[in-house]
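Expect chain and fold; see below:
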Amino acid sequence: MIKPNRRTAIFLGLLLISSFVFGILSSVPMLQKPDFLEKLSEIEMQVLIATFFQAAMAVVYVFITVLFYPIIKIYNRSLAVGYFGFRIIGAGFLFASIGSLLLLLWLSQSFVCANPANSSYFEIVAELLRQGRDFLNHIGMILPWSIGGLILYLCLYKTRLIPSWLSIWGIIGSAFTLIATLILMLNIITIMNPVYFILNAPIAFCELFFAIFLIFRGFNPIDIKTKDRII
């Protein structure tokens, strides 16, 4: 029998919870308002704080990926590499979107001081940057991250490291998030559409519960002889 380190489980649980907190603190609701270009410069500190927490969230995602990798590798090396690759790509897109947020702040500050005759130019560039940030955050990041989630929960189901019902919840939730991202990419729905939030809710609640489970219970012990592939 083998059981992943208890401290690793606790650390993973805390990282999952912190990713939720950082995600909330990295949001800038003003970007969804029609006059965001004019107003962003008035909330400079909020934007800078959001930028910091988005960077922190990206770092947390990397740590989560690195810590889960050897656990998945117990079951299957190839799936572990796929999981690692998809999730690192997702974290990379999250890092990339930080630049667009800082550029939007700079553009807003320039817009306030600019000649009104040039306002249309600023508005077009700002909208492109906002759309680019949404693409990076909600498609570029979430698409590979949800694929990695499918691999993760499939391996956790096969290894029985966590209860089967929790693994199945994670598989279904990751699939719903993948569907939400694909239909968003096809412009069938928008980020503010209730359908988008409904489809993403299962994995959000699953990972929150998963985090609590890891902190208080940890992983189940497993018999490595029962794995499909031993390394």
Q: What stands out?
A: The radius of gyration is 20 Å. The chain has a mean pLDDT of 88.
